[in-house]
Amino acid sequence: MATDTPNSAARLALLGAIDASFDTHAHEVEGEVVALFDELRDGLLRYVVSLGIGVHDGEDVIQEVFLSLFRHLRQGRSRQNLRGWVFRVAHNLALKQRTRVQRRESKVTAYDPSTKHQPDPAANPEEQLAWSQQHGQLLRVVSALPEQEQLCLRLRAEGLRYREIADVLDISLGSVSNSIARSMERLMRADGR
After folding, report:
1. Residue 181 has pLDDT above 80, yes or no
2. CA separation for the pair 99, 104 (Å, rounded)
3. CB atoms within 10 A of CB 154
4. What confidence tens digit (pLDDT) does each residue in 69-117 have?
5. How far is CA 30 from CA 27, 44, 65, in A?
6. How confident is the model at residue 190, as a pLDDT?
7. What distances in angstroms separate CA 132 from CA 18, 121, 151, 184, one per listed residue?
8. Of 7, 24, 77, 152, which cross-links 179 as Cys (Cβ 3.0–4.6 Å)?
9. Whole-number Cα distances in Å, 91 to 44, 73, 121, 167, 172
10. What is the C-alpha separation between 155 and 50, in angstroms, rounded?
C-alpha cells in the first residue's frame, strides 16, 4: 500500500483534474504526463518558489502546468524537449501568479521560512556559525546578481541544459553561458576560492 506523501497527494489532484472519459491515446498521454510529473515536480516547485511565490501558489502553478501539458500532448503537438517546455510554462505562470500576489499585497516577502536550511544538529557551535556566515554570504551574492543571472543559475541548479535554459528564458545560448559563468565566478570569489 502506497504512503500518502505530498507528492502522491499532488499527483492524485493532477489525476483528478484530468477528465477520466477519454480514449486509449488519452490514457497513454496521461501515463506520460504522470511520469513527467513524478520526475519534475520537486525541481519545478523549487524553481517556481524561487521566483517569489509561496509553496501553495507554486503547487497550483505546477498543477496548471501539467494540465496544460496534458492538453498540449492530447492535441498532438510537439513532444520535443518536454522538460524545457514544462519549465518554460511554469516560469511564465509563476511570473503571472507573482504579479497577481503583488497586486493583492503591498509587499511581497521573497523569503519562505519553509525553505530555510536547518543546520546539522550534530555540528558544533563553531561549525554552525561558520556555515551560517558562509551560507549568508553566498545568499547575499546570489541576491545581488541581476535577475537574468539568478534565473539562469536556478534553472541550471535544477538540472536544465544551457539550451533548455535559453528556451525557458527566451534568451540566446551565449547569454546563458555568460550569465552562468559570471555568476559562478562571483560565487567562487565570495566563497574564497
Report:
1. yes
2. 9
3. 19
4. 998 988 888 888 899 999 999 999 999 988 888 887 744 444 555 545 5
5. 5, 19, 14
6. 78
7. 44, 13, 24, 20
8. 152
9. 9, 19, 35, 11, 17
10. 10
Q: In this structure, how many other beta carbons lie within 10 angstroms of the beta carbon of residue 117?
A: 9
Rg (CA), the chain: 19
Statement: residue 178 has pLDDT above 70:
yes
pLDDT score at 157:
86
Q: Extract the C-alpha cell encoding 49.
A: 518558489
Spatial distance between the Cα atoms of 178 and 175, rounded to a whole number of angstroms: 5
Mean pLDDT (the chain, rounded): 79
Start-to-end C-alpha separation, the chain = 49
The label of the residue with cell 505562470 reads: 93
8 A C-beta contact, residue 97 and residue 61:
yes
Cut 0.85: pTM above it? no
Residue in 12, 89, 6, 18 with CA at minimum distance from that of residue 55: 6
Show the domains of the chain with their CATH numbers: 6-104 (1.10.1740), 120-190 (1.10.10.10)
